[in-house]
Amino acid sequence: MKLKGSYLAAAAATAVVVAFPAFLGAYPLAVARSIMTYMALAISWDMLLRSGQISFGIAGLFGLGSYASALAVLRGGMDPFTSILFASAFAAVMSMLLGLAILRLRAMYFSITTLALMEIFKIVIHNLHDFSGGPEGVVLPEPIFGGSAPALFWLCMAGLFMTIGVSWYFEKSKMHLALTAIRNDETSARSSGVDIFKYLLIAFVITSTLQGMMGAIQVQSYGFTTPDTAFDANFTLLPLAMALLGGIHSTIGPMAGAVLLGVASEWLKLKIPYGHLIVYGFIIILVILFMPQGLVGLARKTIRNGRTGVRHE
Amino acid sequence: MANKRNATVLVGLSLAAVAVIAVWKPTVLIYGIQAAGLYASIAIPMGLILGIVHIVNLAHGEFMMLASYATYMLCSATGMDPFVAMVPTAAVTALFGFVIYRLTIRQALKAPELNQLILTFGIAIAMTQAVNLIYTSQTRKLSFEYVSASIDIGELSFGIFNFVFVLVAILMVVGLRIFLTRTTTGKAALAVGQNPKGAAIVGIDVDRTYGLVFALASALVGMMGALFITRSSIFPGVGSPFTMKSFCLVAMAGIGNIPGILGASILLGISENFLKAFRGLRGWADIVFFVLIITVILGRSIRGKKA
User: What is the pLDDT of residues B85-139, one digit of tens each?
Assistant: First the structure.
């Protein structure tokens, strides 16, 4: 019964989101798009985190996708929609090649390497003036779908739903068991016959593809990009804070965190033009120190305690 | 045995490379060593924390940035010289570092490594954005005449002020060596770094040692923040590249190997300035750091597998 209820709620929520363009203006739709982009990145970051690997390179894959898509249109004469598929495939191939090397690293070495890779992508794009437009960036002839607000919204939404779908599949399938086993104890996972490298590579390639796809969708929607916007550290930082606040190792946690922080930051941006990101810094610190399970974890605990009648005063 | 021979070959090759560069492009060598001094003196405090407290402090560069702003305020208000101002700045950052340690990092010492990494990442953001909030992202600069001091040797003319950083780096290495091997507190810190449980059993106050090391490292990086404004303009994001570079150097040297940081810095300083010497390649100089860090990390992991 309970399961049916949650499916119904999910279907209702989906219907409301799909209908957004019917009753929202251009500005709220643009805000919704940016929140959906961050949400997709937060979920994809979390998907890799479920294996215990923490990536600081979200912006790297995002930027790589942006540039692959923009350059495919400009230099390759590709149609904008096809270029998004091309950019996703490009991110997949790149992450596969990189993953073969860097997925042997663990803990802080993996994290720092992903951060360094992002910087390398950025410097390469910066310096290939003739091909990538250098620091001034690239301008596309026109945004995808002629820049129609509802169409852009649905495109971004499609990207997000795909991410949610994959993440949900990760949660329900054998992937979940494999990734959790790797996170909890690699040695015992290996001795129980889990092919660690294979699962890490699958997770890394899939999450990178999703991040590259979101980058491509972003660049096609805005019609221009520069190395500093495509590889903006915020694309690493915000998803991370969102996933942490909502609750890591789940799909629903990063979603909740993205809605909360996305709306809050839009409001703060208007109030404090400089330094509103300080809120993100404090959220990360406070969440790590006081509720490492995030809001969703906190809610689950409260419900569980309420049900069994255990109260800790 | 093979290792020793490899090391000899490596040292020989690097000496040969240095000799070639010294003859062919002497300024590369000079500016490379000057840059190395700066990198090393910023990286050494991070190496100290990583070697003893075993925490990767991703807010390392931000500590320096904060100290630079403090020095900037102090110097522009009183007309003090940064070389004088570095004493009060170091004292303040030591206290600040200690407070940050007590309030946040200490609570996460037993948490998984990921939590510590994300925690210091959050601290870095909070610091950058706090400065952004107060001072906006405008760049600030103090200029001093002595910075442009230069010297002529034959046809060669080059700035000499930046050799200060080389001197500071050497003083840090020597000072820390004396502190860690000659004083009781230093020996205790070294013991805690090697084995915290064992150190606790023999009666060393581990928690106090961690706090002390954190304060000491913060004081050193605060001192560097004060000196940093003599050569560079400052803005909220000025410190973050140094976090990466410092970590890169510490990782190259190997955790706990403080003199090794000096060697790694020289390698990076010279290779960076080598690329900068060619007009067409100038923009690529920044990539050296990141390519090297990945190479070193991967190399270590592969060698670790074999052993």
Answer: 889 999 999 999 999 999 888 888 888 777 788 888 889 989 998 998 888 888 8
Using the beta-carbon criterion (under 8 Å), do B121 and A101 form an inter-chain contact? no
User: Beta partners for A138?
Assistant: A225
A190 touches B: beta carbon within 8 Å: no
| Cβ contact, residue pair B119, A285, below 8 Å | yes
Kindly list the residues from chain A whose CB atom is less than 8 angstroms away from the CB atom of residue B104.
Answer: 285, 289
How does pLDDT run across A182-239, given as a tens digit for each residue? 888 888 888 888 888 899 999 999 999 999 999 999 999 998 898 888 888 778 878 8
What are the structure tokens assigned to A171, written together? 């949660």
Determine, for residues B114 and A113 on separate chains, whether the beta-carbon distance falls below 8 Å.
no
Closest CA of chain A from B288, distance in Å? 9
The answer to whether A109 contacts B297, with C-beta atoms less than 8 Å apart, is: yes
ipTM: 0.79
* Whether residue A41 has pLDDT greater than 90: yes
Q: Quick count: other Cβ atoms within 10 Å of Cβ A271?
A: 7
> B257-289 in b/e burial notation, b at 16+ Cβ within 10 A?
ebebbbbbbbbbbbbbbbbbbeeeeebbbbbbb
Q: Check CB contact under 8 Å for A278 and B108.
A: no
Locate the domains of chain A by residue range.
31-232
Q: What is the mean pLDDT of residues A59-75?
A: 92
The candidate with the shortest Cα–Cα distance to A9, out of A274, A273, A255, is A255
Among A203, A55, A53, A71, residue whose Cα is nearest residue A124: A71
Cβ atoms of A281 and A274 closer than 8 Å: no
8 A C-beta contact, residue A242 and residue A38: yes
Measured distance CA(B111)–CA(B17) in Å, rounded? 45
Residue of A289, A291, A293 to mutate for B, most B C-beta atoms under 10 A: A289
Helical spans, DSSP H, in A56-173? 58-76, 80-102, 107-127, 129-132, 149-172
Residue with tokens 């929607």: A221
Which comes out higher in pLDDT, residue B28 or B179? Answer: B179
Give me the residue from B119, B290, B301 closest to A109, CB to CB. Answer: B301
B122 — contact with chain A (CB < 8 Å)? yes
CA distance B12 to chain A (A): 30
Size of chain B in residues: 307
- Say which of A109, A120, A278 has its CB closest to residue B287: A120
Mean pLDDT within A276-293: 83
Per-residue DSSP letters for B95-117? HHHHHHHHHTGGGGTTS-HHHHH
Q: Region B184-189: what's the mean pLDDT?
A: 88
